[in-house]
Structures are given as structure tokens and as C-alpha cells.
Automatic annotation (TrEMBL):
This is Cytochrome c oxidase assembly protein. One of its GO terms (cellular component) is plasma membrane. Keywords: Cell membrane, Electron transport, Heme, Iron, Membrane, Metal-binding, Transmembrane, Transmembrane helix, Transport. Its main location: membrane. The keyword DNA-binding does not apply. It is found in: Cell membrane. The gene is cydB. It comes from the Bacteria. GO terms for biological process: aerobic electron transport chain. Belongs to the cytochrome ubiquinol oxidase subunit 2 family. NCBIfam families: cydB (TIGR00203). The chain crosses the membrane at residues 6-36, 82-102, 114-137, 157-183, 195-216, 222-240, 247-269, 297-320.
Length: 342
């Protein structure tokens, strides 16, 4: 394995970790108006992700920085061609983060409703656009001989890309609902489990269709195997949810998210940005990578730092592992309290 291939795998791992952790974050935000009956319910849902949402987003920062350093040509083409969608993702994440922190600063219903809307929109937009973006990366986009993107925003809004976006939204909604059921008590737990079953039907259909389309166009034996395992994990998660085994349901649904992202990266390899203009113009793992010296230095840094990051992430989730319910939330929001209602 070359250093360039190693860094392709590592970047795939970082994006997989990001969607595995941030996927249920997005799901909780998207389901806020559906599951919550009042402000106490909304604060309960936000508290399920409150201690970890910002830590989850650091995976995106690390993945983006690694992409820039290890594959500068890939980074340049991606961020120039996908500039508007990625800018919208960034703005949505910023607004969402601000909303978490500010919704509890003023004890007024209108104030909280506005910030709740920011959380909802800030969850839907990234989920949809990440699905569209990764679908188009695998499908390929118009790239000329200089590696420049020659399409437009409408180029990205093709049927396959839109299916990828809608499938991501459905899958993250199921993931978020199961996470809420895993982390809460009482009525909201039962409602989340019931909702996960209904949304799960749409998620199976949409994710299955997206996987099949991907594999028929870009699949090899490894990606086909991963795709089948992904579909099986999603179905297993819904079965476990129906049997009220929330831990197994969450693990299986999370495995389906991991499997979906892994399938896309395997189907993409050895390209990193296929060209629909001419296959000879495609960016590959080898021609888009940095120099061997840069990759070697980055490898040492990653091998030293990554275990500490994983350990800290695991410790954080362990500390905040307990379920919460309406009884955990103060009935009055103290003036100046944060969005977690503490």
C-alpha cells in the first residue's frame, strides 16, 4: 500500500466517523418539530446531543484539513466545483451551532421558536447537501484537462445526486429517532421508537435504491459485499427497534451509516474525482496526492494524535451515557442559561 492509498483510506475513515457521529445529531435536529410536544420535550431532545454535538463536528474539520494536505488537487477541484453547496453546509452548521447556544438565553417562546427553526433547517440542509455532494463525487462531474470543474450547480442536481441527498435525510432521521429512543425515558422514548419504524420504511427503500444505483454503475465485488451488508444492517436495526432493543437498533443503524459511506469510498477508488468529460482527466489517488515527504510527515502526526482523539471521544460518550427525561429538565429556564436547559 502506498502512502497516497493509506491517506485515501484515512480520509475515508474520518468522513465515515463524521457521518456516524453527526448523523444522529442531524436526525435529532430534523425531528425536533415532530417528536417534541412542548418546550420541555424540545429541551430534552437537545440535551441528548448537547454534550457531544460540537465534538462530533471536529471530525469534519480534521477530515477537511487532511484532504487539503494529502490531496490538494482533489481539495481544490472539490471546493471550487461544489462551492455553493459546501458554503450552504458551512452556513447551516454555523447557524445550528449558534442556535444550540442561544435558544435558552431569553425566556420567551417566540425567541426559542426562532432558534428551534434554525436548528431544524441547520440539520436538514447539511444532511441533504452532503448526500448530494458525495453522490456526485462517486458519479463524476465535468472536469477539464487542468483539473477544473466546468459544470454548474444544476450539474450537481441530477437524479442520482438528489436521490443520494434524500436517502441521507431519511437514513439520518431514522438514526436520530433511534438515538432519541436510546437516550430518553417516558413518552418521548415511545414516540421516537414508533416514528423510527415508520420512517425506516422510507429509509430502506431510498437507501436501497441509492445503493443499487451506485453498485450497478460503479460497483466491484468489495463494494457489492459492503452494500449488501449495509442494507442488512439497516433492516436489522429496524427489527431491533420494533422489539424495543434500542441499543442493538442504534448499533445496527450506525453500522448501516458506516457501511453506506464505506461503499461510496470503495466504489470511488482509485479515483478521487472522476471526470465525465474524459476519463483521462479524472483525479486519482496517485495524481492528486501531495509529495511522499508530506504524506510521510502527516502519517507520523496522524498515528500519534488519532488514538488520543478516539480515546477522548469515547470517554465523553461514556460520561454522558445515561438516559434523560422530562424530570431532568428544569421547568423554568434561568436567565442567561444555555441551550441545554441546564
Amino acid at each position: 500500500m502506498t502512502l497516497a492509498e493509506f491517506w485515501f483510506l484515512l480520509i475515508g475513515f474520518l468522513f465515515t466517523g463524521y457521518f456516524f457521529l453527526e448523523g444522529f445529531d442531524f436526525g435529532v435536529g430534523m425531528l425536533l418539530p415532530v417528536l417534541a410536544h412542548d418546550d420541555i420535550d424540545r429541551r430534552t431532545m437537545i440535551n441528548t446531543i448537547g454534550p457531544v454535538w460540537d465534538l462530533n463536528e471536529t471530525w469534519l474539520i480534521v477530515a477537511g484539513a487532511s484532504l487539503f494536505a494529502a490531496f490538494p488537487d482533489w481539495y481544490a477541484t472539490l471546493f471550487s466545483g461544489f462551492y455553493l453547496p459546501l458554503l450552504l453546509v458551512l452556513l447551516a452548521l454555523i447557524v445550528r451551532g449558534v442556535a444550540f447556544e442561544y435558544r435558552g438565553k431569553v425566556d420567551e417562546d417566540a425567541w426559542r421558536r426562532r432558534w428551534d427553526l434554525c436548528i431544524i433547517v441547520g440539520s436538514y440542509v447539511p444532511a441533504l447537501l452532503w448526500g448530494v455532494a458525495f453522490a456526485n463525487i462517486v458519479r463524476g462531474v465535468p472536469i477539464d484537462a487542468e483539473g477544473d470543474f466546468t459544470g454548474s450547480l444544476l450539474t450537481l442536481l441530477n437524479p442520482y445526486g438528489l436521490l443520494g441527498g434524500v436517502a441521507a435525510v431519511a437514513l439520518f432521521c431514522v438514526y436520530g429517532a433511534i438515538f432519541v429512543a436510546l437516550k430518553t425515558l417516558g413518552r418521548i422514548r415511545r414516540d421516537a421508537r414508533r416514528l423510527a419504524g415508520w420512517i425506516g420504511i422510507a429509509a430502506v427503500v431510498l437507501t436501497g435504491a441509492f445503493l443499487l444505483w451506485t453498485l450497478l454503475g460503479h460497483g466491484d465485488p468489495i463494494s457489492w459485499a459492503l452494500g449488501v451488508l449495509t442494507a442488512m444492517a439497516l433492516v436489522a436495526g429496524l427489527v431491533a427497534n420494533a422489539r424495543e432493543r434500542e441499543g442493538w437498533a442504534f448499533a445496527s443503524t450506525g453500522a448501516s451509516v458506516i457501511g453506506l459511506v464505506a461503499t461510496l469510498f470503495v466504489a470511488l477508488f482509485p479515483d478521487v474525482m472522476p471526470s465525465t468529460t474524459d476519463p483521462a482527466f479524472s483525479l486519482t489517488v496517485q495524481n492528486a496526492s501531495s509529495t511522499p515527504y508530506t504524506l510521510r510527515m502527516m502519517s507520523w502526526i496522524a498515528l500519534i494524535a488519532l488514538p488520543f482523539v478516539l480515546a477522548y471521544q469515547g470517554w465523553t460518550y461514556w460520561v454522558f451515557r445515561k438516559r434523560i427525561g422530562r424530570h431532568s429538565i428544569p421547568t423554568q429556564v434561568p436567565h442567561g442559561a444555555d441551550a441545554l436547559g441546564q
